[in-house]
Specification:
By secondary structure, the protein is an alpha+beta fold. The chain is 54% helix and 18% strand.
């Protein structure tokens, strides 16, 4: 009788555990769907309004070049925002399913960093955020250029989002058989109790009010870095800024 009761108790505990996991999974799915619908709807609505405004001007025959250019600029930014959100979702799906493929080859990682900064130059100018690249001007390493580029993209995007207009610095260094990329900002920083969870899915670096995103960028970035045999860490002081450090081997198989 005792063994039977113990067996039933074990089954009950296992069922409770499985039920808890299923409940959390459903809750996470529902939360992602809710956030996704909101995040995607916002740029779509803005894009539609700008296009409607441009069409009204054309129909009325009163096209003001400056106003039209402004509408087109806003529209392009919203398309870029949509593309970024969709990219996050696709990467998250592939990483979670273990289906992400990597193509390693020798690349100039300094050039990849420079290209990322160039893409964000206009956003930085509008936000009055000084950005600079320091350290090595050229460094070859075996990386998947697309995935490494997305890591840099995510870190720069976060620095601009939460940097509060302060300077952003990307420092590239060689360290023995590895290289390091440090992305520093002087923004709002991260609360101490969040430092251990910022790389988890759905976690946000800072306040979510008025800032787009799914909380997937750092989760995906960590997966990409680990696939290269590297690590990604963060140091931060609330009110003073954050420093994300990516450390990766110069050659695959040497990690």
């Amino acid at each position: 009788l005792g063994e039977e009761l113990a067996g039933r108790a074990g089954i009950a505990l296992e069922n409770a555990r499985l039920f808890g996991e299923a409940t959390r999974a459903v809750s996470a799915r529902d939360n992602l769907l809710s956030v996704t619908s909101h995040e995607l709807r916002t740029p779509v609505t803005s894009l539609k309004l700008q296009l409607q405004m441009a069409r009204r001007q054309l129909k009325a025959g009163k096209v003001e070049p400056a106003a039209l250019e402004r509408s087109l600029d806003i529209s392009i930014k919203q398309v870029d925002r949509l593309n970024s959100l969709i990219e996050d979702l696709l990467n998250f799906s592939s990483v979670s399913a273990g289906k992400m493929r990597y193509h390693f080859a020798r690349n100039d990682v300094a050039a990849i960093v420079s290209e990322t900064l160039e893409r964000h130059a206009e956003s930085a100018r509008i936000g009055k955020t000084p950005m600079k690249q320091t350290g090595l001007a050229s460094l070859e390493a075996e990386v998947d250029p697309l995935r490494f580029g997305q890591v840099v993209e995510n870190l720069v995007t976060n620095a601009l989002k939460y940097g509060a207009g302060g300077p952003v610095e990307l420092e590239l260094r060689e360290a023995g058989l590895d290289f390091t990329l440090r992305v520093r900002d002087q923004g709002i920083g991260i609360a101490p109790d969040k430092l251990n969870t910022v790389f988890e899915r759905y976690e946000r670096v800072g306040p979510t009010q008025g800032i787009s995103g799914f909380g997937l960028g750092l989760y995906v970035s960590r997966a990409f870095v680990q696939a290269h045999g590297g690590t990604i860490t963060v140091e931060s002081t609330p009110g003073k800024g954050s420093c994300f450090t990516v450390k990766m081997p110069l050659r695959q198989g040497l990690a």
